[in-house]
Amino acid sequence: MDATGLRDAHDHLLKVAGRCTDWQRLAPPQGEWPAEFVLAHVAHNDALLADATELVIAGSSLTFDNAEAIDGDVLLDIVAKTGGWDGLCRLVRLNGERLARLTEELTPAQAMTPVPSKIVDNGEVRMDGPVPWAQVLEINASFHVPAHTRQLEELFDPLGG
What we know:
Layout: H1 4-18, H2 35-58, E1 64-65, H3 72-82, H4 85-105, H5 108-111, E2 114-121, E3 124-132, H6 133-156
Parallel strand pairs: 1-2
Antiparallel strand pairs: 2-3
């Protein structure tokens, strides 16, 4: 399976993150995650997707649930363990590349494996049922990572310029 879109999405996310200064990360708008949580979420979600992709490749049965990747305590722990912004950016790069490599290993049959998947976004269930694994990975590359890139852009420049 092609992972070009995933790599491009991560490159753009990290380019945006690289333009951020410390003061821009201090106070997100009410109800929004701080920028560090956004990166921790993307990194952890990619790790969960990579773990699941390994299981698909191995032919193991699995379910996918993003609950851990949206848990505030988990995200806080990731932020603390990475040692700051640069560490979070490295983790996003590493986990994104791991997921891209595994995505490229998927055979067409493996990519079409239906995986029971539950994805919650901002308190709303976006997916809950069996979905071809390729579709979950494509949503990550074409929607999920770009949405968090836009989220960072808005946090860093809420007035648009």
